[in-house]
Amino acid sequence: MNEHVDNHADVETFDLAPISLWLEDFSGVKHLFEKWRQSGVTDIRTYLREDEGRIRQCASLIRVLKVNKKTLALFEANDFNHLTGNLDSIFRDDMLQSHIQELSALWDGDAEFSSDTVNYTLTGRRLDIQLRGAVLPGYEDTWTRVLLSIEDVTEREDARRQQIESKRYAEGLFEYSPVSLWVEDFSRIKRLLDEVREQGITDFRVFTDVHPEFVGQCASEIRVVDVNNETLRLFLAPDKLTLLRRLPDIFRDGMNAHFREQLIELWNGNLFHQRETVNYALDGTERHVLLQFSVLPGHEQDWSLVQISLTDITARKKAEAYLEYLGKHDVLTKLYNRAFYVDELNRLERREFYPVSIIILDLNGLKVVNDQWGHGVGDALLRRVGEVLAGAVKPPCYAARIGGDEFAVLLPAIDELGAASMIDEIRSLIEINNQYYSNIPLNISIGWATSNIGEKMEAVAKRADLLMYEDKRSHYSSENERRNLD
């Protein structure tokens, strides 16, 4: 570039150079600079930025003396006159601002300058270019010979822009994903597992049974690289720093058991796996999540980058739990329902519990209440029975509504004395309940039975049921006698 190129230079070398070359006369710019200095201009950059017309003025004073064949080809010009007659189509838009950099270098006394800018071919095609210029030796006082080279870097810049766009796209997918995303470094865990393998361990599950502390050690070696916006929302974190500081509040309780299963998957070479687990938001509420783990491509050898997605399935789990609840419970009384009662009878029989006591209860007078006061009042009576039985019966015993006004209590491993004690507790709670609802008191008929060795549960329930009906007949007989006396 510093080689002297003028009328005596090797014209063939200039013309056949594989890069675009321009020989230009900047003497008009030099004269203009001298006038500006005399008028008091000191900061050329600010001065040019204040008025774009000043940049245009400088550009208009530059005279193109010569270009080579590569220049004509690059800018799609037929000849020199075609090129120079349309310079305003080549140097436009972004070019003016980058021209400040070149002019400032000359103003500061530099004999060389460079810039990355944009030109356009005569057909309108955009060119990303790298421009370098130098005042040729011997012309430092006049700037009448300035050699410029223009390198077409469009392909490189397109690739760079594509890379930036791809990165922005990937970051957008990460940041605005509708599921919680975590990028983590598992490389230290990989080394720990490799060390265990080198010790000759083959059954990792047994190893972690014997050394549960190893799971905790691995968990402490996880390094969180980044999390996305949905992660902050899911765990109610105000920012990433707060989230990272409070990771022990998110991953706690039974997390070691779930993490152990992850480690076993990794030990077995499963770099992509998923499982359901429970985390906690920063306010302490549960977050049921579907965890999907994947070692990112290119990091299979060291696990230095893994992505974990957490899909919030809390609502689904609640719905499933409610459906399961409905399948086993009576909605009105909140006690277990008949389906659960039948299943539990079968389970007790299969497990050969002994003894098993069964209490059968029936609400007296429900039909009269429904007829006289309406079904809403009758439902309130049933709910009160549910409250009484829920207060008296605790696991492993169960209370269930097995018919419209009929209830059952299952007492595994409870003998006659235990059953009698339970009945006393129920009657006591009924008396207390009636003190609050004296206008319509609860009145219940009760029968109970305790299993004999080898007796079917159905037979025990039938005996209790028959005794309940005897109690009911006795109740209604007493009622009729009182009415007759009245």
TrEMBL record:
<protein>
    <submittedName>
        <fullName>GGDEF domain-containing protein</fullName>
    </submittedName>
</protein>
<keyword id="KW-0614">Plasmid</keyword>
